[in-house]
Specification:
Blueprint lengths: L15 H11 L3 E2 L2 E2 L1 H9 L14 H16 L3 H12 L6 H12 L5 H11 L3 E6 L5 E14 L2 E8 L14 E5 L3 E6 L11 E7 L3 H4 L6 E7 L2 E8 L2 H11 L3 E5 L1 H19 L1
Antiparallel strand pairs: 1-2, 3-4, 3-7, 4-5, 5-6, 8-10, 8-11, 9-10
Helix pairs in contact: 3-4, 4-5
Length: 280
């Protein structure tokens, strides 16, 4: 026998029915393939959906901050805390559709943290093969024989020494070194072989002038720091010139890469390309 149903007629302002259906769509309350406003009302009445005036609503700035915190937690291997933040974000009605879709896709897949695996292999001095998707969506593989997790510009990266050098544009002395984003790692597998003792590195000589001669704050990688007249000479052990060049660009005319020639020439090429761009 068919179950009897009660009929409820509602008078609502224009556009309200569509808003109810949007909420039903988000909560997966449907009649057939379509979102059901009446099903949403029934779910509220049966306490299957909670309605509260005190629901937390985040603005765009707060949503952006939580997204950055989620990435940092995943990089640090704190998967459960990252899932908590993603759930909080998905509860926001004002979330843009592309971001909601990306978060839903992330939640529907297990949030496996590459950081946990990397930390274990580093502790055990275990070489590994790493599959990686770069910013151009190219699939790459690296045979890693040494690795460190390093903080660059407020984000953790995996700095590795690997066998592959064919596509590297770095200075010859550092072409075995790669800097990888943890969230782009697709998979890691242990391999046989020996673990290296360190990354390749170069001593880079920097001269700071003007206000920077006194204002410069030493970095952990600095191995020498002395004042020569009105110049501060800093010798830094560098494993990845990319980050050094970004830093020197910020300092402008008050910082000069003095040696070695390979790093100095790489910076000059960057400057030349920038100059040519603005000369057009």
């Amino acid at each position: 026998m068919a179950r009897k149903k009660e009929t409820l007629t509602l008078s609502v302002p224009p556009g309200t029915k569509q808003k109810l259906e949007d909420i039903a769509q988000r909560l997966d309350i449907k009649w057939g393939d379509n979102p059901s406003a009446s099903g949403l009302v029934a779910a509220i009445a049966q306490n299957e959906v909670q309605v509260s005036r005190n629901r937390l609503t985040l603005n765009a700035k707060q949503i952006k901050a939580l997204r950055q915190a989620t990435k940092a937690l995943l990089d640090a291997g704190q998967v459960e805390d990252a899932e908590t933040l993603i759930t909080l974000l998905l509860d926001q009605e004002n979330l843009e559709a592309p971001l909601r879709q990306a978060l839903l896709q992330q939640m529907n897949q297990p949030l496996q943290s590459a950081r946990n695996q990397v930390d274990e292999y580093i502790r055990n001095q275990q070489p590994f093969r790493l599959s990686y998707e770069n910013s151009q969506h190219q699939e790459l593989e690296f045979t890693v024989r040494y690795a460190e997790v390093r903080l660059y510009e407020k984000r953790f990266y995996l700095q590795v020494w690997c066998d592959q050098t064919e596509d590297s544009q770095d200075v010859p002395e550092l072409r075995h070194n790669r800097c990888l984003r943890l969230d782009r790692i697709q998979g890691i597998l242990p391999i046989e072989g020996e673990w290296r003792g360190s990354l390749d590195s170069l001593k880079v000589y920097l001269h700071f002038r003007g206000w920077l001669a006194n204002a410069y704050e030493p970095k952990l990688e600095d191995v020498e720091n002395e004042v020569l007249g009105n110049i501060r000479q800093v010798v830094r052990r560098v494993v990845n010139p990319f980050w050094l060049i970004r830093e020197v660009f910020r300092y402008g005319k008050d910082c000069e890469i003095v040696a070695p020639d390979s790093v100095r020439e790489q910076f000059k090429r960057e400057l030349t390309q920038l100059y040519q761009l603005y000369e057009k």
